[in-house]
Amino acid sequence: MTARRSVYLETMGCQMNALDSELALGSLMQRGYQLTGDLLNADLVVINTCSVRQHAEDKVYSRLGQLKGGKQKRRDNQIVAVIGCMAERDGDGLLDKMPQVDILCGPSELHRLPGLISDVEATRERAIALSGRLRDHTTSAIASVEHEDLEALDSSRHFGVSQHAAVPKVFGRHQAYVRITRGCNKYCTFCVVPYTRGPEQHRSPDQIVEEARRLADNGVVEVTLLGQTVNHYHFDPKGPADTSFARLLRRVHDEVPQLPRLRFVTSYPRDFTDEALEVMSSSPRICKYLHVPAQSGSNSQLKRMNRGYSVEEYMGLIDRARALMPDIALAGDMIVGFSGESEEDFQKSLDLLRYCRYKNCFVFKYSPRPGTNADGRLPDDIPEEEKRRRNNEMLAVQAEVSLANHQGMLGRKFEVLVEGRSKAELKRQERDRKSTRLNSS
Ligand code: SAH
Ligand code: F3S
User: 193 alpha carbon to ligand 1 midpoint, in Å?
Assistant: First the structure.
C-alpha cells in the first residue's frame, strides 16, 4: 500500500470545465488521491484552465506564480499539472514562462492525466498531451493502458464523486452535469473554443440515458445536459439510430422517471426546432429554462461575429419559446466592445436585452484571443474605458429587467432546489470570520 497522496484542484471557466474536473478528480481518487485545500503542500496541483478571455488566463499565471518560490516554499517533488483550454492554447508560453509546470494536458486528453502523472513520477521530466499539435511526450506503454477514445473520460465516471464533501465549491451536492456534445464547429470570430476543444462530436444517446439514470439512482435530483451548442446534438444522422436533440431530451425525460429535474446548456440561437421546444413544454420534469446567447443586438455586429443568424431570427426563437411556455426563464450572453461596435450597435443590444426580458444575462467585454478569426483581422478598436462603460450600462439595464422579472413573481409559489450558499454569502462569511479573528487577537 502506498501512502495516500493529496491533490489540490482548482477549476476556472465554464460548466464543461466543472464536469472535466469532477471526472478527472474521480479517476485520481480511484488511484488513492484525496483532496486538499493546501496549495503549497499538496503532492499534486491541478489547475483546470480557461482561455475564453485574457482575464481568465491571467488568473492562471497568478496562481502558478504562487508556486514559484519566494518566502513560502512549496513541497519538494510537488507535481504541477495545467489542464484544460489554456494548456491547449498556450502550451509553449506556459512551459517557457513557468518552469514549475510538469504536466500540460488539453481538454480532449484528460483521460490520460493519471498516465501523465505516473510518467512524471518515473522520469521527473515534463509530460505533455495536447490534441492540436501532436506534441505527445507520454510513453506508449502508459498511453495504451488508458482508454483511447473521446468517450474514455465520461465513461469512467465514479458516481459517488459529485456528492463528495469537498466538491460543492463547484457543484451542488445533488446536481450533476452530463456531457452530450464535445467541441464546437461554429467558429464565431471572437471565440477560442473551437480551437481548444476541437470539432463537434456527439455521444451516444444510450450512454447519456444510462449516465443520467445512474446519477439519479445515486441521489442526484438535477441533471444538466452539456454542450457548447447543445441543441445541435445529433447522433448518427445517417444511420438508423438517428437521434435529434428533441428525441434525446424526450428519451432522458421518459426513461429516467426518477430524475426530478432535467436541464440543458448552452443553446445556439439557430436551428432550435419546434420539436425540441414542444418536448420541453410537454415534459413536466424538464426545467423551463433556456440559456441562449445572443452576443449582440445589431445585425452588422452579428455578421462580423459570424454568428449565422439575424436579430429578427433570434427574436423569433424567443417568441416561439414564450408562445409555448409563457413562464419560461431566459438567460443570455452579450459581448460589449467587439470590433467596430458603434454606440448605435450597442443601443440595439440594450434594446434586445429589454425585448428578451432575460432572467439574467452574462455580459463580457470583448477580449481578443490569439488564433481566432477576429484576431489580426478585425481591430480591437473600442478603448478599454468605453468597453467598461458599456459593460456597466448593460449590467444596469439587466438589473432593471431582472427586478421586473422578480416583481412579476411576487405572491406566486414555486418548488425550488437549494443549490448552496451564494458566492456573495460565502464572501460575507469569510469577511466575518476574518474580523472575528482580528477582534479576538
Ligand atoms: N457556447 C458556449 C460559449 C462558450 S464561451 C457556451 O457553452 O456557453 C461563453 C461566452 O463567453 C460566450 O457566449 C461569449 O459571450 C463569451 N466570449 C467568448 N469569447 C469571448 C471573447 N473573446 N471576449 C469576450 N467574451 C467572449
Ligand atoms: Fe464559441 Fe461560438 Fe462555439 S461562442 S463555443 S464558437 S458557438
Answer: 8
Pair 363, 394: CB distance under 8 Å: yes
Which helix (H) or strand (E) element contains residue 386?
helix 384-407
Q: Which residue, among 215, 207, 111, 224, has the nearest Cα to 163 in the 3D structure?
A: 215
C-alpha grid cell for residue 392? Answer: 456597466
Residues having CB within 6 Å of any atom of ligand 2:
184, 186-188, 191, 193-194, 228-229, 268
Size of the chain, expressed as the number of residues it contains: 441
From residue 129, alpha-carbon distances to 111, 138, 260 in Å are 10, 7, 39
- Peptide bond before residue 123 is cis, with ω within 30 degrees of 0: no
Q: How many CB atoms lie within 10 A of CB 103?
A: 25
Beta strand 234-235 with 243-244: parallel, antiparallel or unpaired? Answer: antiparallel
pLDDT in tens, 80-134: 999 999 999 999 899 999 999 999 999 999 999 999 999 999 999 999 999 863 3
What pLDDT digit, counting tens, does each position of 269-280 carry?
998 999 999 999
Which ligand is located closest to the Cα atom of residue 55?
Answer: 1
The b/e string for 18-30 (b: 16+ C-beta within 10 A; e otherwise) is: bbbbbbbbbbbbe
Specify the 3-state DSSP secondary structure of 273.
coil
Cell of 350: 440594450
190 CA from centroid of ligand 2 (Å): 8
Site to probe by mutation for ligand 1, drawn from 364, 365, 372, 380 as the one with most ligand atoms within 8 Å of Cβ, is 364
What kind and span of H or E run contains 401?
A: helix 384-407
Distance CA 319, CA 57 (A): 37
Residue 339 near ligand 1, beta carbon < 6 Å = no
Which ligand has the minimum distance to the alpha carbon of residue 226?
1
Tell me whether the omega of the peptide bond preceding residue 266 falls within 30 degrees of 0, making it cis: yes
Q: Pairing mode, if any, of strands 234-235 and 181-182?
A: unpaired
* Probe residue for ligand 1, chosen from 52, 193, 360, 391 as the CB with the greatest number of ligand atoms within 8 Å: 52
Which pTM was predicted?
0.91
pLDDT for the residue numbered 137: 34
